[in-house]
Amino acid sequence: MKREDLLALLSDMSLEEKIMQLVQVPGQTYEESAAVTGLADMEKAEKSKYLAGSVLGLHGADKIIAIQKDYMQKHPHHIPLLFMLDVIHGHDTVFPCPLAQGATFDPEISRKAAEVQAKEASADGVQVTFSPMADLVRDARWGRVVESTGEDPYLNGLMAAAMVKGYQGDSIADKDHVAACVKHFAAYGAAEAGRDYNNCELSEHTLRDQYLHGYRRPISEGARLVMTSFNPLNGIPSSGNKWLMRDILRKEMGFNGVLISDWGAIGEMVDWGFAEDLKDAAKLAMDAGVDIDMCADSYSDYLDSLIKEGNVKEELLDEAVLRVLELKNDLGLFEDPYHGASAERYKEVSFSPESRELALDAVRKSLVLLENRNNALPLNSKSIALIGPYVDEKNTQSSWAITCDADKNVTLRTAFEEAFKETDTKIKYSAGCTLLDNDSDLGFTTYHSDTFDEDNDRLLAEALEIANSADTVVLCLGESAFQSGESTSKTRITLPEVQLRLFNEICAKGKKLITLIFTGRPLELNEIADKSDAVLICWRPGTESGHGICDVVTGKVSPQGKLPMSFPWYVGQEPLYYNRFNTGRPKPVEGDTIFTTRYLDCPNEARYPFGYGLTYSDFEISEVVLDKEKLTKSNPDDKITATVKVSNVGDKCATQTVQLYIRDMVGSTVRPIKELKGFKKITLKPGESAEISFAITDDMLKFWTAANIYDSEPGKFSVFVGFDSATENSQEFELLD
Ligand code: GLC
């Protein structure tokens, strides 16, 4: 539809019609079995059935076509309904969770994954996905770290922008693409104490210098929606935060798409004590420029009176409605209200071999090898015992893979049976224990078993029996899918007691021990890391879990994943991140540490730092060579080239991720001891070497200065090039005016 026709439509709509375009109802309004991702007030949704502008939680081509047909016939101006859904890391084909995608350090993987998700979801009737989540995360106690790509602003921005590219393609009207929604704006990951939905206290400087980068790139990539976060920022809830939404998001970042609240977040301003009541909340949200009220009834019940009383200008309403109509128009819904949804096409694209191949590649590249003593991996044994609750556990995705059929995920047992069926290797399998401790709270339910003790005694006895006859044990442990994700904050980030008991009993057998860990967050792994010969972090790998892990464990491919989040020694270190400050009393590496920044009972550093991950080979890196030591700020084309020589000095072909970090030695605000500014992956055969160069430009040195402007400041810098954020391989250079 042409813009003038859109404007004509807008001017022809009644006040009620316009208001209802800003209302999003839960899918149950139209269909009982819709996915529920929040607390729905159902009786109110009924009145919105043929007026609400959008709905969340539905999928299924035939169902959506039928709902759309019925809706448009009954809508006074036959405006199409907009179908939105959380397609986070899979619609049918489940890719590794976003945190695992961060571990690949490969934005292209995320772009391709998003492309597959968009194709499957769009054919299935979905038009908008609530992804990418671009929140910076620094606290492993917060369960939603599983949905992020980690603790680094630069990496997060690249990964989220790649996802937007994959979801939206060149045009969201294309039937293989959907509109993307960057969330949760802003700084939801800074929830105090890692407790979900909690307040976030951040200086404007830290907000800008660390937290906004992750959103800025995907928004510049053209994401069509942004979602407000549940949290207040310094006491002002995002959904009512005019400064954040109008000054930062719209004016400064140039976002002119649709701003949607998170589920009920407008109404929750009442619970926060920021709004008197839902009517006040509606006004605050409209003033902040929130276009769509997701399931809170504040717009549907109060915008009419607010406008008639003159407390909200109708122009504000018209602006918001026009943005929603423009989104529908750019999706082509006025021409094709179904956006290409088709059961036939869905059958063609769902779970295609190509999609599964991409998912397999993503799993292989996301796994992070933390320990590999005496080259315990790749497996080299004729008698293996695969033990643990994840031997047969199918739910290896995250709790956000809401439309995905976990039964289709390839288990470790299936993959190992396939891999070894033509060989003389003997493999035995045993669960060894239950996945959870008894009476484990999973947020929305509790796991309880009346026969927990007997079951686990029996499972343990079986496991020890098969361990006796094996020379290598592969222990398959981990959190459940529902121990990370929304509303799953934890104060203890260890594996369930019942799994630790199994681990210790197996350790006592003295066999070679490989431990695989399925997790949606960094964990405390000290005992496991100390007593295992090898430890592989598998995250929430999804459809191709078994195949991808088996390919790495058997050496078909070498692991190359790098930690996107620091793994602590102890949870007491959280929040924990590599790009920390030196403080005025840095703790010396050796010597007396009294009166320095330290813990009496734990190192300051992570047990496994950001960017860390082993391969099956050994790599060496030369000193950093700079082609010159001075960079001139006034010459925008000026650059310094930093070069290292990387050599594969081991005996296997492997891929290394060479990382570039920069430290601003003196700034008008204190500066982090390192900041990731680039990375390159290189695959080398044994004995091969290669030169890797990075261009250092003035733009890479910019930060939010004490004057609150994004700029670089002349002075001394250090550049580090290494294989993880703990590298000290560095050179100095200077930035001149
Ligand atoms: C949830 C989540 C958000 C999700 C939305 C819709 O509460 O916070 O990430 O997209 O509701 O399901």
List keywords for this structure.
737 residues; TIM Barrel; Rossmann fold; Immunoglobulin-like; six-stranded mixed β-sheet; 30% helix; binds alpha-D-glucopyranose
What does this structure look like?
With about 725 residues, the chain is an alpha/beta fold. The protein contains 21 helices and 29 strands. Helix 6 (about 105-125) runs antiparallel to helix 16 (about 355-365) and helix 17 crosses helix 21. The longest helix is centred in the first third of the chain and has 17 residues, at about 105-125.
In summary, what is this structure?
This protein is of the alpha/beta class. It is about 30% helix and about 20% strand. Strands 9-6-5-4-3-2-1-10 form an 8-stranded parallel β-sheet.
Q: Largest beta sheet, briefly? A: 8 strands, parallel
Query: How many separate structural domains?
Result: 3
The first-level CATH class of the largest domain is given as: Alpha Beta
Broad shape: globular
What CATH architecture of the largest domain would you give?
Alpha-Beta Barrel
Ligands, ions, cofactors: alpha-D-glucopyranose
Provide the β-strand percentage band. Answer: 15-25%
Helix content: 25-40%
**Distance, first to last CA:** 52 Å
Name the structural class: alpha/beta
